[in-house]
Request: fold
Amino acid sequence: MTEENNKEEKTAQSKEDQEKKPVQRPAARPRPRVKKEAPPPEPSPKEPLLAELVQQVTEKLGEQAIEESYVNQNGEHLLTLVVNRDHWAKLASLLKQEANWQYTYLQNCAGVDQQTYFEVVYHLYSLEHHDQICVHVKVDRDQPEIPSVVNIWPAANWHEREIYDLLGIQFTGHPNLQRILMPDEWEGYPLRKDYQPLDEGV
Reply:
């Protein structure tokens, strides 16, 4: 009887111990964080200047001259225009000669392969007004031609030659449009995204 009593006591004790143990519940899943919508960016202080420029260009060259205009706030509120190629020569002259703008200094000029089209990008600076502007000129990939602006900004000379050399964009009216980096006998244009080198190992 003593052994049976001991067994019963142990069984009762184990049941009590189990009842005392806290019930283990599955860990709660973290609630998904609700993303707060970022407040809209404040208007750039240069928006009025851009609006004035676009209005003046539209009045003189027509609505088709500028395809897009905006202030690049990531680029220190840089005035930016996307320009129709057919109006570029007249617009370039206007940007340099118009008293309100006087973008007399060509800082840089570069070509970009956007896969479906090319772009020539000009960074201009006004020494008179201490202001900058960036102009993107879209160029047809099947007919890559754009007016040269060497007669407006002589510093464009070598820039345009380099773009021609590496992307094959023709600058009509350029006084000496020849390769400047690659050998004259080089085939193709190395900065085009569809360029296939003759020697894949190089």
Notes: The chain has a mean pLDDT of 87. The beta strands are 66-72, 78-83, 105-113, 117-126, 131-140, 145-147, 170-172. The chain is about 30% helix and 25% strand. The first strand starts at residue 66 and ends at 72.
